[in-house]
């Protein structure tokens, strides 16, 4: 790979300056030892939510609310973010982050529980955007649920891993992602693109 490509990737990560609220949430995520999207993926999610006018967003994996803040920043002012996490401490941090950023209470639904128990209770075709950033081994099952939850024309965004491109890496998480990537790529119901931002983001638009 050319040095320009590597430099361009780094540049993209630093190109957009996060808000103070996002930076606070990133620090809280670090304190809690939970992952969070970087500025490349975060700013992309914000731009994507704005581009598609996402009023109803489902997020699997709230963390400390970093990706949630980016998403809310791109959604219309009456848009609602539904976000699921099984860790009470993460949810508490995310609620604090949303409140500190002045997000109206009614714009977020922070749901406690295991994604695979919560998602089946959600309404078919009701979401413009589903963002997945949780247990990678469960991705195939999240995708099954997301396919049902998305409206026609809705978008699925899967937080990826840069290890997926290395065929020598065959741990269960990486294999699950590889399988899901191939399945979506070959699924005529979706238009798919793998974006090289952050650790990667797989986009699948439901026809
Ligand atoms: C990488 S973090 C999400 C970070 C978040 N998207 C952000 O950028 O701020 C993954 C989160 O998924 C949650 N998680 C893991 N397995 C889960 C499951 N089965 N159901 C719900 N949440 C889960 C973890 O508790 C953790 O908070």
Provide an overview of this structure.
This protein is an alpha/beta fold and 207 residues long. It has one domain (3-206): Vaccinia Virus protein VP39 (Rossmann fold), CATH 3.40.50. Helix content is 43%, strand content 21%. It is built from 8 helices and 7 strands; from the N terminus they run H-H-H-E-H-E-H-E-H-E-H-E-H-E-E. It has helices at 3-15, 20-32, 39-51, 66-74, 88-100, 115-118, 139-149, 172-185; strands at residues 56-60, 80-85, 108-112, 127-132, 150-159, 190-195, 201-206. A 7-stranded mixed sheet has the order 3-2-1-4-5-7-6, with helices on both faces. Strand 2 (80-85), helix 5 (88-100) and strand 3 (108-112) form a beta-alpha-beta unit. Helix 2 (20-32) packs antiparallel against helix 5 and helix 3 (39-51) runs parallel beside helix 4 (66-74). It is globular, with a radius of gyration of 16 Å. The chain starts with a helix and ends with a strand. The mean pLDDT is 97. The chain binds S-adenosylmethionine (SAM). The site of S-adenosylmethionine has 23 residues, from helix 4 and strand 2. Pfam families: Methyltransf_3. This is O-methyltransferase family 3. InterPro entries: Cation-dep_OMT (IPR050362), SAM-dependent_MTases_sf (IPR029063), SAM_O-MeTrfase (IPR002935).
